[in-house]
Amino acid sequence: MVDATTAILVVVRLLVLALGILITYYSFEAYRRTGTYYMRNAAIGFGIITLGVFIEGVLFEFAGVDLAVVHVIESVAIGLGFVVLLISLRR
Fold this sequence. Notes:
This protein has 91 residues and is mainly α. The chain contains 3 helices and no strands. The chain crosses the membrane at residues 6-26, 38-55, 67-89.
């Protein structure tokens, strides 16, 4: 049986994943409308961050990887996504 903390974690992670997908989608749509590489990079950056959230959930829930390890993997993906966003904003 799943304890309450794990259930809350799963629900919160699913909400974050859904929001990440929406932000990535709207960033990509903005890129398609404007054609600017800023919006393309925003879509890529948010996509990488969202992918990190997804991978963390899959590895923890289905592969049984240790929680600390999946947090490190997610943090690396978030860091890479932020680097892409930073590069996009600095140009």
